[in-house]
Hints:
single chain; alpha/beta; Alpha/beta knot; Trp Operon Repressor, Chain A; 2 domains; five-stranded parallel beta sheet; two-stranded antiparallel ribbon; 9 strands; about 30% helix; binds 6-chloroguanine; tRNA (guanine(37)-N1)-methyltransferase activity; tRNA (guanine-N(1)-)-methyltransferase; EC 2.1.1.228; methyltransferase
Amino acid sequence: MRLDVISIFPEYLAPLELSLIGKARQDGLLRLEVHNLRDFASDRHRTVDDTPYGGGAGMVMKPEPWALALEALLGRGGAADPEPGAKPVLIVPAPAGEVFTQRIAEELSAQDHLVFACGRYEGIDERVLDWAQEHFTVRPMSLGDYVLNGGEVAVLAMVEAIARLLPGVVGNPESLVEESHQDGLLEYPVYTKPSSWRGADVPETLLSGNHAKIARFRRDQQLLRTAARRPDLLRGLEVSGLNRADLEL
Ligand code: 6GU
């Protein structure tokens, strides 16, 4: 997979050189490049923003540098033989986007080429997104209902969520299967040694060696936790994914 990030603060993306993602880049499992939007500005001051038409607070990112930066990436797709007509996906982080979920991370991890366009200030001139639709599948994406200063931190989160799903990035692929959101529920609580710590004991079932009982205990914990913390997730559960014991809880 090829990933390109365009930002006026390329240094913000430095953590992508660390840990599992950094290792995956070194191992050639993914190609990630960060580009400075200012390199595509045309004036001496490398201006990328201007005042909003219609008035209002803040500044808006000018269209020309964005178009040049995005055009420079076209024709440099991720796959050796990109499917004819397969457009790269342009992800535009913004609080006004669709909420990024594990499902979307999975979907995006199957793509050959992702481009992340980090907006700052009040955002990017809307015409850039309209124009880009001819060359990209454009996906405005939000991490949730709060406001960040720019897209960079959101890109760190999205790239990590997507890249760890690529084959070979996470050492033990089984660890991908049993985690929060994989089955629509939150993860069960985990414990390690010592079995008694400051007067708190590990739940007895987990020490029993009875695998059926342990599986049932964990599933109950998932359901209880999800009901307490994220009741919204329960509504989205497929009934076919539930069993009789789940319903007796
Ligand atoms: Cl993706 N961008 C910005 N600027 N703020 C956000 C966000 C994204 N997601 C939540 N807040």
